[in-house]
Amino acid sequence: SILVFLFACILIVEYFAIWKNQMSVNLEVPSETAIHCHDCWRISKLHFQFCQCCWLGLIVDDPRTLLSYFLVFMFACFKFRADRSSSLSGAFTYYQMISQRKNIFVWKDLSFETKSIWTIFDYLRLYCYCHLLDLVLTLILVTGTLE
């Protein structure tokens, strides 16, 4: 839920930044057409103030950035809803994990039909699979692009 709230806040800030940029006629950066946010990795020493505003999301010169933030927000909402509606309770899963210490073969198939014989490694793999989307969404949020 924290990630969904964070993504929503960033999406609202980006909408506000686009609105502010469209309302202001004069930017502090000369030659606005020659400088883009995606070039900041090269020109940050020359135009640090502009790049700092790009990195903070105060200047949005590429609509794909806003699109990627919106997609991240939607995926986070769907994942949050799926996490809330899942039938795996934490305490039940933990007690089953502790009680099943036999069968240490790590790379067997993960299926819910064989959940009664899962080991700690199987639960660890399930946790990584479930939170891989969180990691990917966070990386998209940090980089600001889907490319």
Word description of this protein:
- The chain crosses the membrane at residues 66-82, 126-146.
- By secondary structure, the protein is an all-alpha fold.
- It has one domain.
- The chain has six helices and no strands.
- It has helices at 2-23, 40-43, 48-56, 63-84, 90-99, 120-143.
- Helix 1 (2-23) packs antiparallel against helix 4 and helix 4 (63-84) packs antiparallel against helix 6.
- It is elongated.
- 10% of the residues are buried.
- The model is unreliable at 101-106 (pLDDT under 50).
How far apart are the termini? 26 Å
Judging from the principal axes of the Cα atoms, what is the shape?
elongated
Going by helix content, strand content and strand pairing, the class is: mainly alpha
Rg, nearest Å = 22 Å
Query: What is the H/E string?
Result: HHHHHH
Report the uncertain regions: 101-106
Q: Helix amount, in percent?
A: 55-70%
Can you tell me the number of structural domains? Answer: 1
Main sheet properties = none
Residue fraction in strands: under 5%
The average pLDDT is: 68
What's the total number of strands? 0
